[in-house]
Amino acid sequence: DAKTTQPPSMDCAEGRAANLPCNHSTISGNEYVYWYRQIHSQGPQYIIHGLKNNETNEMASLIITEDRKSSTLILPHATLRDTAVYYCIALSGGYNKLIFGAGTRLAVHP
Amino acid sequence: DTGVSQDPRHKITKRGQNVTFRCDPISEHNRLYWYRQTLGQGPEFLTYFQNEAQLEKSRLLSDRFSAERPKGSFSTLEIQRTEQGDSAMYLCASGDSALTYEQYFGPGTRLTVT
Fold first, then answer.
1. Among residues A10, A25, A7, which one has the least CA distance to residue A75?
2. Which residue ranges of chain A lie beneath pLDDT 70?
3. Is residue B98 pLDDT above 90, yes or no?
4. Considering only CB atoms, which chain A residues are within 8 Å of B104?
5. Which residues of A fall within a CB distance of 8 Å from B4?
6. What's the average model confidence in pLDDT over B96-110?
7. Fewer CB near the last or first residue (10 Å), C or N of chain B?
């Protein structure tokens, strides 16, 4: 499974869009990009995933570059409750054991 | 509540004691995972069950650790002869093989070994 690189921390003002980058330059053609987040003292929560097309759901949007070497998770209107550690994970199918890195600690402030 | 539940939520034990944790996955989920998370780190994969079969064990799962899922429903994780290095959050997740990308995590069991 490809290694991912994320900034250790980011800040965002409440109500603004939070754009969280992820590099996965060694990703292979059959590997998906998954995003999970972990709010303090809770288990991780699935956000979104994609292969090569951009994806959107009720929580976020995922933009994957054409060469698939990087992606951006977008929280369109961040709230204080979005303060969490966000993990970008690249892995292929199968039973999908998740390999977490250190993630990005997003702080949303008033 | 139809989510993943774990019991207990917190456990304090003395070094050398045995502990057992329980995970109840979302009903009808055939996949069950155990992870361990230490402070400031992301979760680390420990083991995976599909139904009652344990299909993968991480090297992190030493011979003091054993996990079971006897009827393909709930699972238990036992640690024998606990050590201070076992102090961590133990997370359980479940998934449906028809939805390979999504795992639902429980709240975790925080273990403190004194």
1. A10
2. 1, 93-95
3. no
4. 46
5. 43
6. 86
7. N
